[in-house]
Amino acid sequence: MASNFKTEVEEEERELPETFSRIVVGENAERLDPRSSVLAREQRDMQNMEKLLTKTFEELGALADATGMPIIQENGQRTFGPRPNDTRTPMKGTEVFVGKLPKYMNEAHVYNVFRPIGEIYQIRLMLDFNGHNRGFCFVQYYNTEDAKWAIATLNHYEIAEGRPIGVTGSVDNCKLFIGGIPKDKSEAEIFLELSRVTDNLVRVLAKAGRTSETVNRGFAFAEYESHKDAAMARRKMIPGKILMWGKLVHVDWAEPEHPETVNRNYGLSRTVQQRTSGKFYNFFDVLVPMDPMVHMNPMASMNHVNPMASINHMLPMKPDYGMQGNLACFPNPFNFV
């Protein structure tokens, strides 16, 4: 009996460390081994990402089936609409910018919120490398009245609890500034080269040099059929992607948005705005060379001169439509009507 009891005790003592290790180490494995913690977190993130993408594809499939509008993804954006064989062409001023969009939302959520305002022509959602939205999109209606009403009623609307969106008029900009062009190139040569790498180019404007009519000033303006075409061309010509005449060119919007609008739409912090303001003003120095400073009476207060003042007064004033009443509750996000 004594020997049997001793054997049982020895077996229990051998099992105790293994049991203790399984209980304590298993529950605190992430804390004891940082590498396993990082790996486990990455695995969870990957699983969540796969679930979100799967759910997104299902919702987009249901949206396309219910509306008959195609969904196409290309060059960092996903386009919903227009309908096939739709001959109607929206005029300028029918597109709105939607900012502060939650990352997990897709066109189905946007369509459900903006469709009650009026018939939607197209939704363009900007995507990151993981296939998630970048926090903003563009919604285009068929007429300007619907776009104005969307701005008036949906700006600051809570698309989710505690998540208000920003809605404002989209800058219908179809012109690009192309810098770094060889000065011996004519407008026709620039047009042919841009047509080689971009689509739907309408015209090119290259001003003649100040000393000779046979050379340009090293930059030109390219106009496209639509804002979408211009945006796609700008994305294609990001520095490092395409060479023109064997060299890199600098591409940006010919008419940048007002700094306050950019800050409001994209949610830029003051630090980011200050860091980019220098480049913004330098960009305008290329377009509008500044005259030498004229020394004036020191009594005149010149300490707070706004370098954008000469440009701001030429920009059109955005009408304030105000809030035209409270927005009614919307139906189920995927009850497409």
From TrEMBL:
Entries under InterPro entries matching the protein: Nucleotide-bd_a/b_plait_sf (IPR012677), RBD_domain_sf (IPR035979), RRM_dom (IPR000504)
GO MF annotation, one: RNA binding
SUPFAM superfamilies tied to this protein: RNA-binding domain, RBD
Matching PROSITE patterns: RRM (PS50102)
Highest taxon of source: Eukaryota
Keywords: RNA-binding
Pfam families for the chain: RRM_1 (PF00076)
Domain RRM residues, every copy: 94-172, 174-256
Transmembrane segments: none
Protein name from the UniProt record: APOBEC1 complementation factor
Source organism per UniProt: Folsomia candida (Springtail)
Lineage: Eukaryota, Metazoa, Ecdysozoa, Arthropoda, Hexapoda
